Amino acid sequence: MTATTTPYDQLRGPTTVRRLISAPTAGPLAALVLACLFFSLTTEQFLSGGNFSLIVQQVMVVGTLAIGQTLIILTAGIDLSCGAVMAFGSIVIARTAADGTLSPLAAIALGLVVCGGFGLLNGLLVQMIPLPPFIVTLGMLNVAFALTHIYSAEQTVTDLPAPLTALGETFPLGGTDITYGSLVTIALFLAFAYALSSTSWGRHVYALGNSPESARLNGIRTSRLTIGIYTLAGLVYGVAALLLVSRTGVGDPQAGQTDNLDSITAVVLGGTSLFGGRGAVLGTFIGVLIVGVFRNGLQLMGVASIYQTLITGILVILAVTVDQISRKKAR
User: Fold this and answer.
1) Which of 142, 122, 111, 28 is nearest to 75 (CA)?
2) pLDDT tens digits, the chain, 331 residues: what are they?
3) How far is the CA of 96 from the CAs of 44, 84, 100, 151, in angstroms?
4) With contact defined as beta carbons under 8 Å apart, do 138 and 80 qualify?
5) Is the pTM of this model over 0.85?
6) Torsion angle in degrees (nearest 10) through CA of 56, 57, 58, 61
7) Which residue ranges form the domains of the chain, and what is each CATH number?
8) CB 110 within 8 A of CB 214
9) Where are the transmembrane segments (predicted)?
10) Got the DSSP string for 56-80?
11) Rounded distance, CA 133 to CA 104, Å?
12) What are phi and psi of 67, to 5 degrees?
């Protein structure tokens, strides 16, 4: 009888370097670093604190939308309505505050409730009927878009009270102007990163995305969890609506028309699988920065905006291809 032995390397487990390389965010982070190096070498204005602050300001609205989008994609769903819901929420906030119907704080609270209500309705339709998330949110996109234009009467809302634009104000930090809205976006990313990685709720979200049936058999209330995730995503879109109003200083009914696709782009570039159950919200933060860095860098190089869209599309296809290949290797 011979005793079997386990190789020493297997007993030690993966090294720290190997764990870092195999982390879902390693690829997107490497792409972000390479992009920053490339634009630093090709443009003189890119590598400055002011420019990086500008990039974060430019992506803070889409980045916040992408947080809610990440939660839904982790459950193997998708939300095409997020940009339109945000636009409707921003019009509700701006108009009710500008015409004095509500105080600024009450208008903000109403905007959050409206956006959360859209999320709740999405979740109920996806879970209780059930309907495919793509169809539900496509229909809700049109509903929110129409309500935005009906309620605003196609007019941009101006003369907003100061509390609505407070998050667009800046403060100096090391010679660079930072907006308070950027800090709100970063704080949300950190809060959801903790919730997804260190709480039972986060583990349930991943379990739901991996296999709803297995999650249900393990005692997870999948219906309630799904509806809750869509509602929470809607509330996050409400925060994005406030950030949009604070950054632009107006309530614009034309806003957010492509932000749904931009948020999906950020999620995919950040390494979250469109098939659910795999990804990280910090990866989404890196993904939205990749989009912002490419657009900013190409603009500094004088590249036409249509080529920026072309390159962004190519990056999305590459990211999904890598995801598909890694899934096949994992089987």
Assistant:
1) 122
2) 444 455 555 545 556 555 555 566 788 888 899 989 999 999 888 988 889 999 999 999 999 999 999 999 999 999 999 999 999 999 999 999 999 999 999 999 999 999 999 999 999 999 998 899 999 999 999 999 999 999 999 999 999 999 999 999 999 988 888 999 999 999 999 999 999 999 999 999 999 999 999 999 999 999 999 999 999 999 999 999 999 999 999 999 999 888 998 999 999 889 898 889 989 999 999 999 999 998 899 989 988 888 878 887 887 788 778 767 766 666 6
3) 45, 18, 6, 11
4) yes
5) yes
6) 100
7) 48-324 (1.10.3470.10)
8) no
9) 20-41, 61-93, 105-125, 131-151, 178-196, 227-245, 266-294, 300-322
10) HHHHHHHHHHHHHHHHHHHTT---S
11) 33
12) -65, -50
Burial of 117 (0-12, 13-18, 19+ CB in 10 A): middle
Residue pointed to by tokens 């939308």: 65
Question: Per the structure block, which two tokens stand in for 79?
Answer: 């939300």
> Residue 51 and residue 294: Cα distance in Å, rounded?
13
- In the block, tokens 């998330």 appear at 133
Residue in this structure with the two tokens 């509330």, named with its chain if needed: 235
Q: Which two tokens stand for residue 20?
A: 């870092």
